[in-house]
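Sample A.
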Amino acid sequence: MKILHFIYDHISNPWVGGGGAVRTYEIYRRLSKKHHITVVCGKYPGAKDYTEGSLEFHFIGTDKNNYALSTFCYTIKAFAFLLGGKVKADVIVEDFAPYNPIFSFLRNKPVILQVHHREGVNLLKRYYLFGLPFLIIEKFYPRLFKNLLCVSEASKKKFALNTATVIPNGIDSSLLETTPTDGDYIAYVGRLHIHNKGLDTLIEAMTLNNLNLSIAGKGKDEHKLRTLINNAGISQRVTLKGYLNDKDKIKFISGAKCFVLPSRYEGQGIVVLEAAACGKPVVVSDIPELSFAVQEGFGISFKTGDATDLAEKLTYLINNESLTKHMGEKARQYAKNCTWDSIAEQYEKLLTDVVKAGHG
């Protein structure tokens, strides 16, 4: 089977490098053992096409050091790439984002739209009236597709995509072999996007307690985040680790007291699954996409955007050693059913079924 996938993000993209990119890479590096896969991503400074066996990555757009320009150019050139038919494919997958729809259903091929999370009114909070077109696209664009894939039941419900297939995110099975240690810090791993990831709430929460926080990741808001930390006067208790490779990331998570993800919106949150695999309890915002951690007994939720509530929940968990241990055990038990190997098999079946069904 020949698969053509359009996604702006890539695991090395300095502005994003999010869960969608990780999902794409982890699934396709497994499926490339049997199928030929071409992934078309947005350019960024230094991006170069490369191949890993039967998995090819192509970068289009502009390599100017400007995120907004990169996104815009990707949209235009991805649409041209799509219509040009340069790559022969049995099935096309488009990762949806309201900023760069490429109308892949216009190709006379079986097409799947993959949906991660819905931003909704957050688009207006971030961009004011300029966010209105994105809000409209987000609401109506997915309805143009026959074949839909969501990464969580919560996203499926938010988008009201009743016919969508749900295939969640996963973790590498090797994480289940790690040995957790009990450090003195709370860990955050992820993109440094202050509004999306709720990092402003997290920093404010840290001013309300005496705990230690360590943040790992990269992103366009790194300078702003450093300023927030310095202005809050907590630079001695909050450290920025920068980008960590997979080995160092797992060591970092495994050594934490607990893990925190204060996002305002998420698809599912791969890092929550990784923390679970490392045997760590999590504190998450009360958005529906992260509720599974609470339901499965390894997470505590706080009111999204409420720094006081977050500070209280972190303090409560850190000060309850028996609870932390119990939740960590629950976390690892849950993660055993979430390996990328299993997810890739489900994903392959969906692609095969769509190809057999024909155009749509």
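Sample B.
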Amino acid sequence: MKQRITNAFAKAKAENRGAFIAYLTMGFPTPDASEQAVDDVIAGGADIVELGVPFSDPFADGGVIRSAAYEALRQGTTLDWTIALAKRLRARHPDTGIVLFSYYNLIFSKGLEAFADAAADAGIDAVLAVDLPLEERDELLEFLKPRGVGYIPLIAPNTPIERVVESEAGLENSFLYVITVKGTTGARTELPPDLTARLDAIRAVAHIPVAAGFGISTKAQGEEVCRHADGFIVGSALVKCLADGKKPCLS
């Protein structure tokens, strides 16, 4: 297994900063433009990119990403197209961490073994399935692990610490995606006051890096969060840049 995700966090730590993880909805605003946007965020300093596969019922997402997903679907963006894109990106960016961000329905419908084969062939480092609970993820991991593809668990604001420990058990070349706010994705002007204590508690038991996402929209927010985490994730703010006809970048 190539440790690109682990290496990305190690590099950021050596540079005395948090890792920057960028989420983009694939196929938005157009398929070609979304591919260019990934190149742009990597050129802009993203250590890891999350390739968001558009889904018809993106219940975890707020208005910006939901609208982007609907437009991407309208233009014919699929899971297979996104995997093919990942393969092209891997050829251009051999050291960047690539995470496939999807709802499980799409993965399951493709067939778990076929999906794992395709992900490995494309050079995808890890998979994040938004709606796959801890108790059921082994059915996917049994195909991902032998092919050297990691898995990213989501940690909700109300996840007990014991469950955090269970969530990271057996994972490598991965990170804990800690959701900072209750509700859906979307930029916020302020993050919860108890977030720092929550991140500190998770970091104290974690053996893999901790990254915080949902609601982070500026570089300043990311830097603040990374006093208590190993990385930060920005999605809606970048997608909104594309919706406004701009290149995706942090303010």
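B remarks: Residues 183-189 have pLDDT under 50 and may be disordered. Residues 213 and 233 are 5 Å apart (CA to CA).
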